[in-house]
Design brief:
This protein has 414 residues and is of the alpha/beta class. 40% of the residues lie in helices and 9% in strands. The protein is built from 13 helices and 10 strands. The strands form 2 sheets. Strands 1-2-3-6-7-8-9-10 form an 8-stranded parallel β-barrel, surrounded by 4 helices. It has a two-stranded antiparallel sheet with strand order 4-5. The longest helix has 26 residues.
Length: 414
């Protein structure tokens, strides 16, 4: 990516977001996603949160006065843009709930090879089938559609040999070489496979530092490049550039670092209060400094030093203060699956949705795997419309996210 390209995209973000963000700051109060550096880059001296000192919590947020939307249909379409949903089916029909949601402006879909509940094929059976499915998904869309999946390499690869796709190397195997050229080649090869299949958004690479090799979510699955954050950053940079060269957007994960966790947030509440250190921020900070990621995924880990009440994904202290304010990230932030046990065991669906938006996330992910609700998108949109009507979420706050999602929809940064 050239310097001029980076500046032009940042300038575009600032121009598109300026009006809506200004209104959102007044409505939301407290520390906003735009507090800190301007969209042109990081603060002069980026800082991190000490592992022993809690981050300053944002001031209390006064709910904005409820103002009915002048155009309810337009409001629903904007809310739909903030959602990334999973669904069942190797094909879609015109009356399927997911088709209706896409036609109504859904921001994106997330595809899986296997269904968690049934064990059968969910969205992917072969290269030809997937290409037909993604063509149908795009044809149903009334706005730019993100078609996402997890293609990390190795065990976490939705496009795998069992489905007729090329084998891929794990991040650990690439990390063992410490060779950016190998990482770039891996990213380019995976990107070309995804592009041919009609996928445009890779929820990868993992930039978690391999703090605990026994970690069942990261280390034990060979999902981390290295225990050295500088190697993680260098190889992630190279892989992202390969993905971008193939025309694929990239979301790095899992902010602010999942490498020290002792459990998997998909299946448990995971507390890293005693294990997380600021070293785990380094790959994120490096990649943000390069203006390279297209999005950053917030994790469901709980660090009581930073926020005693909410996991990172639902915490303004983590998304607003740490990621946007201190690290200077001005692009899109997405949640990990809001159907994960780390969330559902502690919060109602409605409360998790509200907290995710209040924390500063722009794209809310619902894998729709652990339980399956065909028309879940409609329910979630109704819930957020209710928050706008009650004044808990302002429409200008939604506009902040739309401005960032417009940049994400425009294509990869590289």
């Amino acid at each position: 990516m050239t310097y001029d390209r980076r500046i032009s995209r940042r300038a575009l973000l600032g121009a598109m977001a300026a009006g809506s963000v200004a209104a959102g700051l007044a409505a939301c109060g407290g520390v906003s996603p735009s507090t800190g550096p301007a969209p042109g880059g990081q603060s002069a001296t980026p800082s991190t949160v000490s592992s022993s000192t809690p981050a300053s919590a944002p001031p209390s947020r006064t709910p904005p006065a409820a103002t009915p939307s002048a155009d309810p249909a337009k409001l629903r379409a904007k809310i739909a843009r903030m959602l990334l949903f999973g669904f069942r089916g190797l094909t879609i029909g015109p009356n399927d709930p997911i088709t209706r949601a896409i036609t109504g402006g859904l921001g994106g879909v997330i595809l899986f090879d296997r269904d968690q509940m049934t064990g059968g094929k969910r969205n992917i059976a072969s290269p030809a089938q997937l290409a037909e499915l993604t063509t149908a998904l795009r044809a149903a869309a009334s706005s730019p559609l993100l078609i996402a999946l997890d293609q990390e390499g190795g065990r976490v690869s939705r496009l795998n040999p069992a489905m007729g796709f090329p084998a891929t190397k794990t991040e650990a195997a690439i990390g063992a070489t410490s060779d950016p050229a190998i990482a770039h080649a891996a990213g380019l090869a995976m990107g070309r496979t995804m592009a041919k299949a009609g996928v445009n958004f890779d929820l990868a690479p993992v930039v978690d530092v391999n703090v605990d090799p026994r970690n069942p979510a990261i280390g034990a699955l060979d999902r981390s490049f290295s225990a050295d954050p500088s190697i993680v950053a260098a190889l992630a940079e190279a892989e992202i550039r390969g993905l971008h060269e193939a025309g694929i957007r990239s979301a790095i994960k899992h902010f602010p670092g999942l490498g020290s966790a002792a459990a998997n947030t998909d299946f448990a509440v995971v507390d890293v209060t005693k294990t997380w250190t600021e070293m785990e921020l380094e790959p994120f900070q490096t990649l943000i400094g390069l203006d390279l990621p297209d999005a950053i995924m917030s994790a469901h880990i709980l660090d009581r030093r930073r926020d005693p009440d909410a996991p990172a994904s639902l915490s303004p202290a983590t998304v607003d203060v740490l990621l946007r304010g201190r690290l200077g990230w001005s692009g899109a932030v997405m949640t990990d699956d809001l159907g994960a046990v780390a969330i559902t065991s502690r919060f109602s669906q409605a409360e998790a949705i509200a907290k995710a938006i209040e924390a500063g996330n722009d794209l809310l992910t619902f894998a729709n795997q652990a339980t399956y609700v065909p028309d879940l998108a409609e329910h979630v949109i109704d819930t957020i419309v209710g928050f706008v009507a009650s004044g808990r979420v302002s429409e200008s706050r939604i506009d902040q996210s739309i401005a960032r999602l417009d940049i994400l929809a425009a294509g990869p940064r590289g």
